[in-house]
Amino acid sequence: MIKNSFRSSQRGVATMFVAMVMLILITLMVITAYSLSNMNLKTVGNLQTRKEAIASAESAIEQVIDGTFWIPKPPDLPALPVSQIIDIDIDRDLTDDYSVSVAVLPCLRATEATITSASSVTLVGFSSSSAWNTVWVLDATATNAASGTRVRVRHGVRVLMSDADKNLYCPT
User: Fold this and answer.
1) In which band, very low, low, confident or very high, does the pLDDT at 105 lie, cut at 50, 70 and 90?
2) What is the total count of domains within the chain?
């Protein structure tokens, strides 16, 4: 009887040892899974913030192109593109999230437009011999003070200009 109880206690110790090793392995797996999911969550958050900043910069560039690409000046001075700061509310909560500085760089080049369709020459101020395709670069830097995010976006823009405007703004 003594031998039988000794064997039972040895099997209990072995079972307890195996159970402890399994618990340690399961604990390590849970800790690893938590660390990986936490790292993935941070990565996704950073990507989302970066995408928001890029969207803000592109939105500001679109606003500049649509409305205020040229700032009017007195008639004796040509209108020149200027830098602007535009505040963007990306999540539409009535609080500006990004401040975007948009600079219009000087005209890169001008090429005479080929007249293949009537749409270009029917614009006001254009004739069949005075249309020019000018190329400009808009440089936008979006900044979010809360998160410290800062993204720079550059876009090239082609602007159709009359001969007179081309000579004023893009003499190259």
Assistant:
1) confident
2) 1
Q: Is 123 in a helix, a strand, or coil?
A: coil
Residues 11-35 have pLDDT tens digits of 788 889 999 999 999 999 999 999 9
Neighbour-count burial of 57, counting CB atoms closer than 10 A to its CB (0-12 exposed, 13-18 middle, 19+ buried): buried
Q: How many residues does the chain have?
A: 172
Question: What is the distance between the alpha carbons of residues 111 and 50, in angstroms, rounded to a whole number?
Answer: 36
Enter the pTM of the model: 0.69
C-alpha–C-alpha distance, residues 43 and 54, integer Å: 17
Q: 106-118: per-residue pLDDT in tens?
A: 888 998 887 655 5
DSSP state of 85: E
Say how many CA atoms lie within 13 Å of 8 toward its Cβ.
5
3-state helix, strand, coil in the chain (%, to 5): 45, 25, 30
Distance CA 131, CA 140 (A): 28
The residue segments making up the domain with residue 129 are 2-169
